[in-house]
Amino acid sequence: MKGIAVQRRPQAENAASQREGVKMNKTLVVFYSNTGNNRYLAERIARSLDGDIEQIRPWISPFFFVFLSSVLKTGPGIRALKHQLNSYDTVILCGPLWMGMLLAPLRNFVGKYKNVINTFYFVTCCGSSDAQKDDKFGHGKVFSILRDLAGGKLVHCEAFPIVLVVPKDKIGDGNAIMKSRLSDENFKGEILRRFDAFIKFLSSRP
Ligand SMILES: Cc1cc2nc3c(=O)[nH]c(=O)nc-3n(C[C@H](O)[C@H](O)[C@H](O)COP(=O)(O)O)c2cc1C
Q1: CA of residue 106 to ligand 1 center, whole Å
Q2: pLDDT tens digit sequence for 37-73
Q3: Is residue 96 domain-resident?
Q4: Is the CB of 103 under 6 A from ligand 1?
Q5: What's the CA-to-centroid distance between 137 and ligand 1, angstroms?
């Protein structure tokens, strides 16, 4: 795997996440992450598909500038990626949502590369739950923005709400939700089931 160092996971984890028997074309996972959730998800997807991975690096990366660029839909943009995107059958874009916005680094990525990408998917570990999908700050709204921007190249969007790893007694606690971080310890149960289904879906493409 190129781009950033990603450790290999022990074999035993689960059937769909393993390379054995998985028919995959060449895949690149591209991610932006501020607090690590989407990095974790991107690394896990890349590992499961034996794909390559690269981080999107904004020219100016502090939170405030990324937030402002996202609000204004303008800004200095992102550094060029090292991987040749047109050499991949599939690109998986992974990143968070803020205030119902498509973040500037993700928007910049789509604007810069959509014409050279063959097909791409968007995956997010977000704060909105399935029930909040169509709310003002829900992931459904951001998926629509992305579809409009990307045109027919965007095949599918998938959300992994962080609430899936929040302990049951903290599910109504907004602060606990915002502070939750994906880890090997909590990536279990429903989120793992969804993840495996997603990997299986990707793997079964013609
Ligand atoms: C300023 C801010 C605004 C956010 N707004 C939203 C939102 O509108 N919708 C949502 O689903 N999640 C929202 N979130 C939650 C993040 O998408 C979620 O915590 C994500 O997992 C963070 O990803 P990261 O660790 O890769 O940066 C917001 C988080 C922050 C910090």
Answers
A1: 13
A2: 999 999 999 999 999 999 999 999 999 999 999 999 9
A3: yes
A4: no
A5: 9
